[in-house]
Amino acid sequence: MSEKEPIGVVGAGWVGLVTATCFAELGHRVVVREILPEKVDSLRRGEVPIYEPRLPELIERNRERLSFTTEMADLLDGPRLLFICVQTPPTYSGDADLSAVQRAVEEIGKPDGRALVMKSTVPVGTGRAIQRKAPGLAYVSCPEFLKEGTAVRDFLEPDRVVIGVSDDDYWAGDAVQSLYEELGAPIVRTDLSSAEMIKLASNAFLATKISFINEIANVCDEVGADVTEVARGMGLDPRIGSRFLSAGLGFGGSCFPKDTQALKILAGNSGYHFQLLNSVIEVNELQKRRVTAKISKHLDSLVGKRVALLGLAFKPDTDDLREASSLVLAARLQGEGASVAAFDPVAMERAGELLPGVEMADSAMDALEGADAAVLVTEWPEFRELDWTEVTKRMSNPVLVDGRNFLDPSVIREAGIAYEAIGRPSAGDRSVVG
Fold first, then answer.
1. Gap between the terminal Cα atoms of the chain
2. In degrees rounded to 5, what are phi and psi of residue 392?
3. Which residue would you say has higher pLDDT here, 91 or 281?
4. Secondary structure (3-state) at 385
5. Can you point out the beta strands (E) in 158-295?
6. Beta carbons within 10 angstroms of residue 381's beta carbon
7. Cβ distance 359 to 333 under 8 Å?
8. Which one is catalytic: 85, 142, 220, 255?
9. Which of 8, 25, 354, 386 is deepest in the core (most CB within 10 A)?
10. Residue range 406-424: average pLDDT?
11. Are 227 and 405 spatial neighbours (Cβ–Cβ below 8 Å)?
12. Which of 123, 120, 128, 124 is nearest to 95 (CA)?
């Protein structure tokens, strides 16, 4: 069997590590360039700096195919396809910060016969701008659609692969397509701008579904309907589908907030007012703040009260706290005069510096000890298995807000806990605090 094409990856962050490791799993030799020497050293030792299921095992299994370096020259010594996987965080204006992308392009220069493959999420028009600045450097837009917690599976079993390329760089598009063909997913070949827009539009649409069902949940609270039943009935319609129809505290993470804001800014910079996205963003911000009102239904005041947060990461199976609901919620509770204790199975180390004044408990039970109220923030499976009778004994005033509609209301009520959910007023109306 012929040897597979070697690959270069710029950036050893979450996207870069998953991309490099999965290509290695497919049999490619991969060179990863990272500018932080300490991260390179730890990766060479087999230490993985992020929490992503299956990733450590795949890195260990493919160590002979993976190499890590701080030198861009090492990438230019063999691979003809150079995947750009650097961060593009929002600036104060809301625009994407492309400085890391620009540095990578400058360092790569114009190597003959090589192509830059953009995995980083960039504004529409970035590809064309790079082509103008670096004529002769082949360019391919190949946006990633990985979800934290399932990124390895998403890479190896993608629902689609998008490849944007200009006519002059058609060979580069063919080369990238050949890498993905063995995965058996539909391949969308299109122009550069359309490929860049597909990424932003996809995330903005999913964010819109989340904000929509949260608005429905808020109406359900007012009229006595159960949003979980409403979502179940809606989701059976194939035109709607059931995914991303789970009401809760709103979306967070590294993609949805940033990409939704980026698309709004892109539209505004182009002279178009994207009114729908303004509402999606506003609903998401307000949703995180509704929890304090639910707690206040059971407590006269939050001043001097202890509130426990169960979960800190923006979703299960990740330690990512970017735009996590817990950050806003903890700040709001402290602003109302409450003390806050928290526990998360994997995100405690990252949370310490982001949540000043919050007590980091060693376990869920420790966080609940003496609490006047608790909020389930992240739907970690282990929280379902808590001994709720014991929880009732530990809490000073057993009130629970299920911020993800994750728990069984009957189990919580039977344990003697006042249960509040998101858009499920009937789920807790038989429980009162004495």
1. 73
2. -60, -40
3. 281
4. coil
5. 161-165, 187-190
6. 10
7. no
8. 255
9. 8
10. 96
11. yes
12. 123
Q: Which run of H or of E encompasses 31?
A: strand 30-33
Determine the pLDDT at residue 434: 33
Provide the Cα torsion 362, 367, 369, 373; round to 10°: -170
Separation CA 337–CA 317 (nearest Å): 31
Least confident stretch, 188-202, 257-271, 389-403: 257-271
pLDDT in tens, 36-47: 999 999 999 999
Under DSSP, is residue 306 helix (H, G, I), strand (E, B) or coil?
strand
The beta-strand segments (E) located in 115-245 are: 115-118, 138-141, 161-165, 187-190
As a whole number of angstroms, the distance between CA 280 and CA 132 comes to: 35
Q: Which amino acid is located at 66 in the chain?
A: L
DSSP 8-state assignment for residue 3: P
pTM of the model as a whole: 0.92
CA distance 249 to 251: 7
Residue 17 clears pLDDT 90, i.e. is over it = yes
Nearest CA-CA partner of 262 in 328, 210, 313, 207:
207
The set of residues, in sequence order, having a beta carbon less than 8 Å from that of 212 and lying 6+ positions away, is none
Give mean pLDDT, residues 276-304: 93
The residue type of 261 is Q
The residue whose two tokens read 């060179």 is: 31
How far is C-alpha 434 from the geometric centre of its chain's CA atoms? Answer: 40
In whole angstroms, give the CA distance from residue 250 to residue 285: 7
Residue type, 166: S
Please report where in the chains the tokens 């402290």 appear, as a residue: 334
Are the C-beta atoms of residues 80 and 348 closer than 8 Å to each other? no
The answer to whether the beta carbons of residues 382 and 345 sit under 8 Å apart is: yes
Q: Indicate if the alpha-carbon torsion angle 31, 39, 130, 120 is positive or negative.
A: positive
Q: What is the largest CA-CA distance in the chain?
A: 76
Overall residue count recorded for the chain in this entry: 434
Beta-carbon contacts of residue 356 (< 8 Å; ≥ 6 apart): none
Residue 220 falls in the annotated catalytic set: no
Q: How many CB atoms lie within 10 A of CB 215?
A: 17
Contact predicate 172/189, CB 8 Å: no
Least confident of 86-90, 220-224, 331-335: 86-90
